[in-house]
């Protein structure tokens, strides 16, 4: 699988929304950890 095919599958695949939610959850967790000091 080439990088372009991976990108296409990532953008147009049915798991795209789940991936965004996972990234958002990690960002929130990181911000919480930083804020908690």
Secondary-structure element pattern, one letter each: HH
Proportion of residues in extended strands: under 5%
Instruction: Compute the average pLDDT.
Output: 76
General form: elongated
Helix content: over 70%
- Gap between N and C termini, in Å? 41 Å
Q: How large is the count of helical segments? A: 2
Features:
single chain, 37 residues, elongated
Topology (elements, then pairings):
Elements: H1 3-12, H2 16-36
Overall description:
It contains 2 helices and no strands. Helices cover 84% and strands 0% of the residues. With 37 residues, the protein is mainly alpha-helical. It has one domain (3-36). The mean pLDDT is 76.
Q: What's a quick, concise take on this entry?
A:
This protein has two helices and no strands. It has helices spanning 3-12, 16-36.
């Amino acid at each position: 699988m080439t990088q372009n095919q991976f990108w296409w599958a990532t953008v147009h695949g049915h798991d795209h929304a789940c991936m965004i939610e996972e990234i958002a959850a990690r960002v929130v967790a990181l911000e919480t950890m930083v804020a908690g000091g």
